[in-house]
Amino acid sequence: MDRPTADWFDVTDLAFVADPYPAYRRLREAGPLVWHEELQMWLVAGYANANAMLRNPMVDRVFRDRLPESEWATFNWLNSSAALDAPRADHVRMRRAMAGWFARGSITSLSPLIERVCNELLDEMAARAGQGEEVDLVRHYVEPLPIRVISELLGLPQELRADVRAWSVAMVALFEVDRGSDQEVAGQIATDALAERFAELTAERRARPTGDLISAMVGKGHDTLSDREVAANAVLLFNGGTGAVINALGTGLLQLLSRSKSRELYCSDPESLSESAVEEFLRFDAPLQLFERTALEGLEFRGLRIQQGERIGLLLGAANRDPAEFMEPDSFDIRRDPNPHLTFSAGAHFCLGAPLARREMQIALPLLFTRFPELRLSSDPVPEHGFVVRGYARIPVTVS
Ligand code: HEM
């Protein structure tokens, strides 16, 4: 069968980036897989196909070193030494080494920490508002929350946190499809700095272990990690544990604040609606839109031949709006149930931090509305302009 193609699909088009969902609809209708010549990858936009592909053992993440090596050396080792992109056998070992920290029970014990951080941030927001200063939901609530939580978990010293966050933003920008050379240089410098700091921290914890996650990863045990692997996984946890939570919570809150009926409904019963509201935050506008797989061998998929080594792009945000899986997929419904979105992926790489991300959002949401029942948008929010990473840079609000 001829390959269906979608060369009209342009991820650099600003209108697409602002609202990719009409283009995703067209892609879903074009076939189970469509070949994109410029991106040199198959694209999967339907829910059932994306779900099946993510669980297919004949495809996996395959990290390719970026070239020239002189510019990308740190980026290459940092990624290939961490769970997400390590070879399969190492992936399983690394995942096991971290799993206990992210199991549901461990996350439940983090609730007091998350509540304390939320309450501190809400106090600071109230103080700002009291002094007539602008309150930005991103900068003053949504962004510092996961940064403080993951920093506590990793044992990241206070004085390093702001720098590490800035470097993390610059490094994650390297995963955008459409990136400029300035962005690449800034990202490479930031990646070097991240690797260096986390390598130092790893060495310190090996010499003098504390009770933090880095100490646990360097600890001798069944799933021993090398120092390089510990540093690389710590960077992965910081990157994974911050940006996506910030964007999912920020975007979700914006959707809720923009819809008076949804907001009224939520405020009528936050206790029973917080869980389903958070799942809808995650589904409606996924913070990470594209993940790749590579065919480990040639395979047939829905009647199409994928050659060994070909890349496959899973459009998670598109899958989450598939009408074959979700009733009225374009409406934002905080009571949606079931809501089997693919925002955390599926299969072997299913997000390790999903229980933590969910818990942070489930705690932050009701505390915000309990403290500020009059919370309102005060001016236009400012979107980030990425395709792979979706979210808002600023969401100005008034709190009373
Ligand atoms: C809303 C927030 C989050 C979203 C949307 C998200 C999304 C994802 C996705 C889609 C993947 C799999 C990528 C693939 O299949 O190729 C993933 C993997 C991962 N995430 Fe998250 N994530 C979030 C929060 C977190 C948090 C809070 C942490 C930890 C602190 C974390 C740590 C990880 C790790 C370690 C992996 C690699 C798992 C593996 O390869 O086995 N994530 N995440």
Spell out the blueprint of helices and strands.
Blueprint: H1 14-18, H2 21-30, E1 34-36, E2 41-44, H3 47-54, E3 59-60, H4 69-80, H5 88-102, H6 104-108, H7 111-130, E4 135-136, H8 137-142, H9 144-154, H10 161-172, H11 181-207, H12 213-218, H13 227-257, H14 260-268, H15 270-284, E5 290-295, E6 299-301, E7 304-306, E8 311-315, H16 316-319, H17 354-371, E9 376-377, E10 382-383, E11 392-394, E12 396-398
Parallel strand pairs: 2-8
Antiparallel strand pairs: 1-2, 3-5, 4-12, 5-8, 6-7, 9-12, 10-11
Helix pairs in contact: 4-11, 4-13, 7-9, 7-17, 9-13, 10-11, 10-13, 11-13, 13-15, 13-17, 14-15, 15-17
The structure holds protoporphyrin IX containing FE (HEM).
Order of helices and strands: HHEEHEHHHHEHHHHHHHHEEEEHHEEEE
* Share in helix: 40-55%
Overall pLDDT confidence = 96
Instruction: Using the 3D structure, state the CATH architecture.
Output: Orthogonal Bundle
- Count of beta strands: 12
* Text of the CATH class: Mainly Alpha
- State the helix count: 17
Shape: globular
- Strand composition percent: 5-15%
Descriptive overview:
The protein is of the alpha+beta class and 400 residues long. The strands form four sheets. Strands 1-2-8-5-3 form a five-stranded mixed sheet. The protein has a three-stranded antiparallel sheet with strand order 4-12-9. Strands 6-7 form a two-stranded antiparallel sheet. The radius of gyration is 21 Å and the shape is globular. The longest helix has 31 residues, at 227-257. It has 17 helices and twelve strands. 54% of the residues lie in helices and 10% in strands. A hairpin with a 2-residue loop joins strand 6 (299-301) and strand 7. Helix 4 packs across helix 11 (181-207). It has a single domain, classed as Orthogonal Bundle (Cytochrome p450). It has helices spanning 14-18, 21-30, 47-54, 69-80, 88-102, 104-108, 111-130, 137-142, 144-154, 161-172, 181-207, 213-218, 227-257, 260-268, 270-284, 316-319, 354-371, and strands spanning 34-36, 41-44, 59-60, 135-136, 290-295, 299-301, 304-306, 311-315, 376-377, 382-383, 392-394, 396-398. The structure holds protoporphyrin IX containing FE (HEM). Protoporphyrin IX containing FE binds next to helix 13 and helix 17.
